[in-house]
Amino acid sequence: MARLSIALLTIASLFFGPSRSKAQEFNVFTMNLWRGQSVSCLSANPTDCEHGSAPRVGSLAGALTTADFVAIKDFGRESILSLQEVDKHTSRAGGIDVAWEIDDALSPGWANYFGSAMPYQGGQYGSAAVMSVAASQSATWQLDNPDPSTESEPRIAVTTRHDFGSGKELWVVNLHLDHLRTHRWGAERRWGAYYQFLSLLDWLDGLDPDTPTVLNGDFNLSQSADPVLFSWVESALASRGYSRVATWNVDHVFVRNPGGQLSVLYTIDYNPYHQGVTLSDHRWIKTVFRWN
User: Are 58 and 196 in contact (CB under 8 A)?
Assistant: First the structure.
């Protein structure tokens, strides 16, 4: 029994962190679902999931584990989920609205906003925000790529603004850049993602400079695979006041914190499983903030 108690405390500390008053704290998750278009796929064979041949449950609550919902709901803290690779009414998702399903599984008190990057399989493919703190503004930013030779897919950033009361407001920018590699100047790099990032900067420059901003998501650029392009990305963001607070491979969390209004308490990353299948080829990053 003692060992069980210690184990439960260890799990609790992983999800919740040290015990403290949570009234001024909140979470931001970045989650690339990848098989999120098939996140409710009941198959131990990832190929079945990818090609839409496996049976699906009616609600994503059946696919996400209890531990995932504990981490997401994190009782006492508001949460904002930045989701990438989200399907809406596509054939491979069995016609479901994935963002709505997650919202419905977490409700009551949650809402969702879906942004479409492109039509796909009879529906839409894009990104979404699912949130327990309402968005006072929401928008889908189309990210331009001036070089069609990169053959990159359309990409977007879903942006939401949240009012926490007492003058505390927050922008959350949910980014997903393209993954294709092309040759330029003797090197194979993800130039499409970089060009889309340059388009993002124009949007970021239009945000209220006095409001803290969390920029997170799937950049499809990493220090290991694309060190040159990633260094350019990080430098461009640093010049605008953004600091990187968490990274797992191509998934990153940057924060612009004018006047030190926020503190980052901790970050964790993890990858949920369902029936022996990982729900994503990415890890989910949770960042816990506190208003100062």
Answer: no
